[in-house]
Amino acid sequence: MGTLGGIISDTQTELPVVDLRGLNQSKLHTKAWDIAQRELIRALQSYGGVELIYDQVEPEIRDGLLDRAVPELFAENVATDRPKPPPLPYHGVYMYREGFPYFSIQLANLNSLASVEEYANTIWPQGNPYFSNVVWNYAVYMQELIRMIHRMILEGLGLGHKYESFIKSLANSIRLSKYHDDISSNETKVALPPHKDPNYLSIIDQRKMDGLEVEGSDGKWLRVSPMPNSFIVLLGEAMMAWSNGRLKASNHRVQMDVSKERYVVIYGSLPSQSNDLVSSPMELTDKEHPTMYKPFKYYDYLKFRFSNEEDTHKDTLKAFCGA
Ligand SMILES: O=C(O)CCC(=O)C(=O)O
Ligand SMILES: [Fe+2]
């Protein structure tokens, strides 16, 4: 344990760990940055996921979000007063999976404190400054981290010059999730079935309750048990397509004792609604890497994917836009 700026473990039983402590975008191309970038790419090529040690987020914000703001939100019965299904799958405010003790609230187009306040006002008519501030402060920290990861990915693929325009094309979202079933047995079971996220990247903060499992290249499930100062990052299908399959989308699931409550926060990057074409740059196609996916519109793919949810496509993205 403990190599600075590099990989700590990449055995087949654990997700690789990359240390980002001391790094930021003013440290581009220092030795530590280059090592971390290389190891990040390696992890995303073979697992589609990585544990990042990142200590820039104020502990009061992380604790406040997961220990207070999110539980208080779910205490408002947002999970039981289920409104109509959202107009766009994975994009409305409310999400759940039929038959699983999982419920999630997504705040899309997260671009200002006012956008969080607007949502908070729908739950608490007098507003809830604690909730709004903690969610927005967390989003600001995540924005910095997600930019750093995208920069490492683009540079690692030799496309650093596309970074600014890529970042401009992104939207961000935050999902607040709760897992719990009102049962007395302490049985461990699948609480969220295996899936790939459709977006570019997901940064998961689960803190005290484990449950996330990532499929390794040998098909075995790796139990993820992040350290208190780390985050789990998973690559989604849009990034796999953009990278022309050079990076892999992580297949993952949640397995846990659902008689206990588990809260999770996921910050994500995805194509913006006004410009949602996912098209792999031609630099990533050559003889050894023929085109894997035709350019596609992200929101069309979401509709396809979620209208085929019960379908048994082994690879939904390929079925939609495979070349
Ligand atoms: O709860 C977790 O750890 C991951 C949840 C997840 O994969 C999702 O909501 O897409
Ligand atoms: Fe997921």
From TrEMBL:
The keyword Iron applies. Residues 170-271 form the Fe2OG dioxygenase domain. The keyword Protein biosynthesis does not apply. Keywords: Iron, Metal-binding, Oxidoreductase. Gene3D superfamilies: B-lactam Antibiotic, Isopenicillin N Synthase, Chain. GO terms for molecular function: metal ion binding; oxidoreductase activity. It comes from the Eukaryota. Pfam families: 2OG-FeII_Oxy. Belongs to the iron/ascorbate-dependent oxidoreductase family. This is Fe2OG dioxygenase domain-containing protein. It comes from Vanilla planifolia (Vanilla).
